[in-house]
Design brief:
The protein is of the alpha+beta class. The protein contains six helices and seven strands. It is globular and about 45 Å long.
């Protein structure tokens, strides 16, 4: 869940190529699944449950506009964790962004339903997402965008080899908040 009691600053993170991938195992009562048409509704519900969107309909419109046009890519890049009852409880998308003309691999929209947080699902999800990303894209630099409100997730990303970067212009992000974010995050990381 996002901590909206603290100031919001953008945070860009980079995982440099060649880093060893730390393995985090998914608890036995859960399994990984890939996107199938119709899963966009559950994606929207998961993202709304962690307060990334105020309404599920807004999340659904975002997904339909930004991801559904690339259905074949979604089917191999949008990852879920399901519980034993088949409920999707977490998601992560392996995607890309452009920095100028350079196409970089990115991790997008990592979320675990609040009632399933603290079970190690986030760590396992990021590990599995990175493992699949390396299969699809090869070993190269990987990026993600997050925010100070997600300081708990930043800890997971750091355990997965990401470091906060002050590079500017990555994926269209100006990264103007770097110094403010770093000062604030000293209290939480």
């Amino acid at each position: 869940m996002l901590d909206k009691t603290i100031p919001y600053y953008h945070v860009l993170m980079k995982r440099e190529e060649g880093k060893t991938l730390s393995k985090f195992v998914l608890p036995a009562q859960f399994k990984f699944t890939l996107f199938k048409p119709g899963d966009e509704k559950e994606w929207a519900e998961i993202e709304t449950s962690v307060a990334e969107f105020n309404r599920a309909v807004d999340a659904l419109v975002y997904f339909q506009n930004d991801y559904l046009p690339y259905i074949k890519e979604l089917e191999r890049r949008c990852l879920f964790i399901e519980n034993n009852e088949g409920l999707k409880v977490a998601t992560l998308t392996i995607w890309w962004c452009y920095t100028g003309v350079r196409r970089d691999p990115w991790i997008h929209w990592v979320a675990v339903r609040p009632e399933y947080q603290g079970l190690g699902l986030g760590k396992a999800l990021v590990y599995e997402g990175l493992r699949r990303l390396l299969e699809i894209e090869g070993d190269g630099n990987v990026y993600l965008h997050t925010q100070t409100w997600s300081y708990k997730a930043i800890g997971i990303y750091k355990k997965s080899g990401f470091e906060i970067t002050q590079e500017k212009g990555l994926g269209g992000f100006q990264n103007c908040d770097y110094h403010k974010a770093m000062e604030l995050l000293k209290k939480y990381l």
